[in-house]
Amino acid sequence: MRQVKLGLWGPEVSEVCFGSLAISPLQGRVTEAEGASVLRYALEQGINWIDTAEIYDNYAQIAKATEGYPDVQIISKSYSVSAEEMRLSLEKARTALKRETLDFFLLHEQESALTLKGHSRAWEELLRAKEKGIVRRIGISTHAVAGVRAGALQPGLDVIHPILNYQGLGIIDGTLDEMLEAISFAAELGIGIYAMKIFGGGHLSHDPEKAINFVRGVPGVQGMALGMSSREEVDYNLLLLSGQEVPRNLREKVKHRERKLYIADWCQGCGLCLEACPQGALSIEKIAVVDNKACVLCGYCGRVCPHFCLKIV
């Protein structure tokens, strides 16, 4: 499998990072055991880093799947605001993942310099943790152009995980060209960049080769996180990345698998999900309603619903 260097000072990793949101309870597409089996299979095929987050609630699943793979890199993230919250997040990750030292830890969904300022205490704690050897590399994930630009100037930042696809789907504050300019700016500073949502939450899966080749062709982007919840999806993506012909039966099984956000009819219309949606894809019309063109199927809305009404299916 093709290896890439993540930024000027980062490690060498496989071009594709296993996006574990797809096997987490947040999306509920597979059981914990099934998800661990899929992840283990991906590691056996040569994928050697994993993207997760505290809200995915799948540390135990990853720890189980990575037994015997001590060199696999794990990236996690949290919404911590204070230093104490960040200390708790780091300790939770170290304990549950069974890692004395965390490979990467990011601030989750940072939108701008203002957002980063609001999380300054948590960032300072990340810097201290890096100095102590608790975490090797730190950074941010973002759906925003302003987030990439602000992150690039953040002291001590090593990696940025931005949303990126050929239609600019999911960018919350600007155009695709503006995102490309921001990524170029960050890359010139030596920052490691790995893209998310390259298939636009499934909206671009009709032409996966175009989606992959676009991201591969963006200067400064070294890798990409791909969500996979079956062995067939692992095989499919790795064949695409290698440039090999994908068998027709595998292509039909994976390529046209439709997914959507399901909203149960017992929704109370409380509106909490609207605040959790970074895409602004939800509205209230007595109950929650989704704009399927705007939704990128992240599942973040489901985590805040007190009545368990929202789920990716």
Automatic annotation (TrEMBL):
<dbReference type="InterPro" id="IPR053135">
    <property type="entry name" value="AKR2_Oxidoreductase"/>
</dbReference>
<dbReference type="Pfam" id="PF12838">
    <property type="entry name" value="Fer4_7"/>
</dbReference>
<keyword id="KW-0411">Iron-sulfur</keyword>
<dbReference type="InterPro" id="IPR017896">
    <property type="entry name" value="4Fe4S_Fe-S-bd"/>
</dbReference>
<feature type="domain" description="4Fe-4S ferredoxin-type">
    <location>
        <begin position="288"/>
        <end position="313"/>
    </location>
</feature>
<dbReference type="InterPro" id="IPR017900">
    <property type="entry name" value="4Fe4S_Fe_S_CS"/>
</dbReference>
<dbReference type="GO" id="GO:0051536">
    <property type="term" value="F:iron-sulfur cluster binding"/>
</dbReference>
<dbReference type="GO" id="GO:0046872">
    <property type="term" value="F:metal ion binding"/>
</dbReference>
<keyword id="KW-0408">Iron</keyword>
<protein>
    <submittedName>
        <fullName>Ferredoxin</fullName>
    </submittedName>
</protein>
<dbReference type="InterPro" id="IPR036812">
    <property type="entry name" value="NAD(P)_OxRdtase_dom_sf"/>
</dbReference>
<keyword id="KW-0479">Metal-binding</keyword>
<dbReference type="Pfam" id="PF00248">
    <property type="entry name" value="Aldo_ket_red"/>
</dbReference>
<feature type="domain" description="4Fe-4S ferredoxin-type">
    <location>
        <begin position="258"/>
        <end position="287"/>
    </location>
</feature>
<dbReference type="InterPro" id="IPR020471">
    <property type="entry name" value="AKR"/>
</dbReference>
<dbReference type="GO" id="GO:0016491">
    <property type="term" value="F:oxidoreductase activity"/>
</dbReference>
<dbReference type="InterPro" id="IPR023210">
    <property type="entry name" value="NADP_OxRdtase_dom"/>
</dbReference>
